[in-house]
């Protein structure tokens, strides 16, 4: 597909996967789905299948430990040692910059999901809620699906709430929808509630919401996810991240290298 380049890391074929499902978490509000997926990749020690470079991702290089890389989508896989179900895991460094680009990369990823014989897609993300309506220390999970019967079974099993109306922006909602329309693949979208201030403040990271999604995945699919976090140490980690972010903003302000009307700072240079 024009504008998309694949960098393969493995020759894994459809026949190599047993009863595979796909779990995806793209960047979005408070990076809830992205952090949950990255944590899952680390805990499962998932192997890299391919990277996808797309010319509608942000035009800049990512610097990590002094090494440059282009923004990309990543597809990884995990082989279940118990031979129950294997997992394809999909995430990205960024969402596409345009609606057309989001459709294009979502269509492309949908084709790969179909190629590997996936029968179920699970997308993870955030559900913005007024902070005054968040009554529990454990965030509520809201769910939607391309299959009503499938949705009802997971609502009962995980004590989730239905998403009655709305729009799920970006690839987290679009990929399961396109996969159902094009290939008949069922999809579930799980969104953990987060403070709706995250919609306007791109620097917020809601680890509590991400860990709630991971705990739900662990229960539903008997995944070997260790309980690395308690709600107390999540709050401490979040505070430490905010302190580091505030210090970075002060350092950037002191440099005064760029004169711009947009005073917001980010981790991108």
Write a structural description.
- This protein has 269 residues and is α/β, with parallel strands linked by helices.
- It has a single domain, classed as 3-Layer(aba) Sandwich (Rossmann fold), CATH 3.40.50.
- It is 35% helix and 23% strand.
- The protein contains six helices and eleven strands.
- The strands form two sheets. Strands 1-3-6-7-2-8-11-9-10 form a nine-stranded mixed beta sheet. It has a two-stranded antiparallel sheet with strand order 4-5.
- Helix 1 crosses helix 5.
- The radius of gyration is 19 Å and the shape is globular.
- The C terminus is likely disordered.
What's the helix and strand layout?
Blueprint: E1 4-8, E2 21-24, H1 32-44, E3 47-54, E4 62-64, E5 67-69, E6 73-78, E7 87-92, H2 99-115, E8 120-129, E9 141-145, H3 148-158, E10 161-162, H4 171-183, E11 186-195, H5 207-221, H6 231-255
Helix pairs in contact: 1-5, 2-4
């Amino acid at each position: 597909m024009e504008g998309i380049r694949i960098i393969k890391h493995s020759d894994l074929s459809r026949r190599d996967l047993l009863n595979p499902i796909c779990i995806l978490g793209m960047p979005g509000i408070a990076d809830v789905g992205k952090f949950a997926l990255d944590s899952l990749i680390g805990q499962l020690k998932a192997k890299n299948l391919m990277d996808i470079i797309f010319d509608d991702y942000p035009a800049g290089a990512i610097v990590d430990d002094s090494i440059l890389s282009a923004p990309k989508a990543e597809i990884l896989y995990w082989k279940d040692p118990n031979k129950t179900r294997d997992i394809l895991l999909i995430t990205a460094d960024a969402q596409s910059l345009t609606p057309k680009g989001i459709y294009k990369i979502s269509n492309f990823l949908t084709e790969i999901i179909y190629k590997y014989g996936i029968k179920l897609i699970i997308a993870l993300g955030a559900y913005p809620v007024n902070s005054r309506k968040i009554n529990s220390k454990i965030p509520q999970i809201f769910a939607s699906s391309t299959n009503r019967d499938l949705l009802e079974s997971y609502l009962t099993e995980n004590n989730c709430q239905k998403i009655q109306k709305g729009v799920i922006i970006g690839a987290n909602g679009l990929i399961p929808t396109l996969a159902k329309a094009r290939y008949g693949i069922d999809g579930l979208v799980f969104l953990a509630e987060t403070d709706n201030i995250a919609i306007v403040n791109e620097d917020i990271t809601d680890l509590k919401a991400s860990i709630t999604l991971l705990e739900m995945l662990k229960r539903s699919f008997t995944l070997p996810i260790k309980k690395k976090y308690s709600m107390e140490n999540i709050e401490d980690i979040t505070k430490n991240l905010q302190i580091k972010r505030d210090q970075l903003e002060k350092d950037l302000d002191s440099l005064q290298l760029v004169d711009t009307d947009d005073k917001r700072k980010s981790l991108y240079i």
